[in-house]
Hints:
By secondary structure, the protein is an alpha/beta fold. Helix content is 31%, strand content 23%. It is built from 12 helices and 17 strands. The chain has helices at residues 2-15, 28-41, 57-64, 77-85, 101-108, 111-116, 124-133, 170-181, 196-199, 209-238, 254-258, 270-273; strands spanning 23-27, 47-50, 69-74, 92-94, 117-121, 142-147, 186-193, 245-248, 265-268, 290-301, 304-308, 325-328, 333-334, 344-348, 360-364, 377-382, 385-391. The strands form 2 sheets. Strands 1, 10, 11, 12, 13, 14, 15, 16 and 17 form a 9-stranded mixed sheet that branches. α8 packs parallel to α10.
Amino acid sequence: MAIESDKLRDRLDRATAHLDPPYAVVDLTAFDANSAALADRAAGKPVRLASKSVRSRELIGRALARPGWHGVMAFTVPEAIWLVRAGLSDDVLVAYPSADRAALAELAADPTLAAAITLMIDGTGQLDFIDAVRAPGQRAELRLCLDLDASWRPLRGVHVGVRRSPVHSARAAGALAATVAGRAGFRLVGLMSYEAQIAGLGDAPPGRTLLAGAIRLAQRGSYRELLARRGAAVAAVREHADLEFVNGGGTGSVAATSADPAVTEVTAGSGLYGPTLFDAYRAWRPTPAAFFACSVVRRPTPELATVLGGGWIASGQAADSRLPRPWLPAGLKLVGTEGAGEVQTPLAGAAAATLHVGDRVWFRHAKAGELCERVNELHLVEGDAVVATVPTYRGEGHAFL
């Protein structure tokens, strides 16, 4: 492992010797390997790409060009419109309901966009909002997807998972589908359920054996319950709508979700970059593919090396798991009293004593696409060379997230 880490560090250092940190790179060999592995784990079902986990049009296109990948899950309606107009996909599912009047008006006024983009709903309030933007008789028919809440509620008052849709039961899903069927200007074409407590929660947190056991127990119970409830919900919705797709899962549950007979496609994205949150999964761990580099600028003691910046913190519950991890050279660690800082990050560990001013330290972000909110471009590396430099969403002047 140490030899492989040294080789990777040497390769990244040589490829980017002409650049001054901070900057971000994506190793295309690892990116492509992760893409193939995710498609294999989907066992023949299409993988829809979660664009928020990539946030670079060039890399979105690269993944979609590979076997097994089809369609995009976008975060917002403006992003979906942008991706369709760019020719990246003619099948874009917006992951969350929208209250963006201007974007909805643009979508409703363009039959091409309306045919390519599917909006997410979980209640009649969103239908009313869209109708207020543009009445049914004055717009193209809009494609809709119903968001089925995938959280597990084993006991009254116990909620395992994220808090998303109010539609939890098969009965509620069928009732909403019936309402959509009776509303002019809409067509229900899909159902989605994201099991965050399985797909987004690592079952092997380092050094926490008891917690790992509890997570695995909850995930097994949740999976069994969702398997039955999602199947019933799909059947209830199909009584009122001709569904084109049933979407589920995420990088952490591609194999398990694709095994559900009710699911026709799975979603993934983070696994393409391989952020640190997925180091805590047993089933599959992506190869780290995305990194950012910071420069050593001082040596406060012989045992410490300090880099400039480095505090690229991930969203979510405030915890150590949201901190970036110093990755190369191997054997570095954050200092507990400072962590990853806004202007400086001191690093300890055996490797710190070997670093000199001007050396690079390579970090991995805790999450995938959030790395791209810190940089305007990604340097794409093959072997020991930068073969292309491509803009991120931020670099193209878009802030969709």
